[in-house]
Amino acid sequence: MKKLTILDGGMGRELKRVGAPFSQPLWSAQALIESPQHVADVHQSFIDAGAEIIITNAYACVPFHLGEQLYQSQGHQLAETAVQIARTTAELGSTPTLVAGCIPPAMGSYRPDLFDVEQATPILQTLIAAQEPYIDVWMVETLASIEEFEVNHRLLSHSQKPAYYAFTLDDEPEGNALLRSGETVTQTAKRVATLGASGMLFNCSIPEVLEQAIVDAKKVFDDRNIDIELGAYANNFEVIDTSHQANDELQAMRSLTTDEYLQFAKRWYDAGATIIGGCCGIGPEYIKTLAEWKAALAD
């Protein structure tokens, strides 16, 4: 991608905002089951705002959200439905839009302590198989540890599609930029550089912590003369702590304005990010502001 590319925003909270069926623990999967048109409408709203990449609504197509019984009976089908909706919406548009296949945390967001390789592997394989035929690129989201990255990388090594890996950060680091596992971004970027990737991004963290992560990763890639694209898409949440239980209650939102988010985005861009969008709570109005800023850069 390389030139500045605008990613979409957060699907789940936008579905909730527009009145789609939405409750815990199903999260964004509820609309796939009960009202798929809402999913298409949200994709379209992000495209209309200027997003050049939309991410499939497959984030909640895992047992953590669906429950084991519904996952076993419909998990593959729901992930396939999610990617087909994204593909159809992208192709109906008048501007080129890439579809990124979403690979979410298999065992729950923000909790590297819950990750189990043996349990996660078949879940991830199902998500890959369901989406592979329809996507342009992979977006592996909210990775909380190097181990999670390594497992996803191994499984995607057979795919012909470019793979982008997005890591979630400690919202309250002391000094170095850290993953939620406590591993440094520098350590992580070295592992990404060794195994290879099309891109390394940072997502679903407060915007204040992303700039240092980009700086740290860029230094690793520059020192090794490796061409791995960098990106950032923050959330609009309050700080998430290490004991977070994603299905217990909705995470508290903050009141980040579109201009405030743009100021963060400009710093990410200056630090080396060339893919910028939004995660949870970052709606089409934020993406529109980013797209207008990109247009002004080209003038």
Descriptors:
299 residues, TIM Barrel, 8-stranded parallel sheet, 11 helices, BHMT-like
H/E element sequence: EHHHEHHEHEHEHEHEHEH
Shape category: globular
Corresponding CATH superfamily? Homocysteine-binding-like domain
Number of strands: 8
Biggest sheet: strand arrangement = 1-8-7-6-5-4-3-2
Question: What is the straight-line distance between the termini?
Answer: 20 Å
- Which value, in Å, is the CA radius of gyration? 17 Å
| CATH-level-2 architecture | Alpha-Beta Barrel
Mean pLDDT: 94
Q: Are there runs of 5+ residues with pLDDT below 50, and where?
A: none
Q: Helix segment count?
A: 11
Name the helicity range.
Answer: 40-55%
Describe the main β-sheet briefly: 8 strands, parallel
Structure classification: alpha/beta
* CATH fold-level name: TIM Barrel
Q: At the first level of CATH, what is the class?
A: Alpha Beta
Number of domains: 1
Note down, in words, how this protein is organized.
The protein has a single domain, classed as Homocysteine-binding-like domain (TIM Barrel), CATH 3.20.20.330. Helix content is 45%, strand content 13%. It contains eleven helices and eight strands. It has helices spanning 11-17, 29-34, 36-49, 63-66, 68-92, 117-131, 146-156, 185-195, 210-223, 258-271, 284-298, and strands at residues 5-6, 53-55, 98-103, 137-143, 163-167, 199-203, 229-234, 275-278. Helix 9 (210-223) packs parallel to helix 10. The longest helix is centred in the N-terminal third of the chain and has 25 residues, at 68-92. The radius of gyration is 17 Å and the shape is globular.
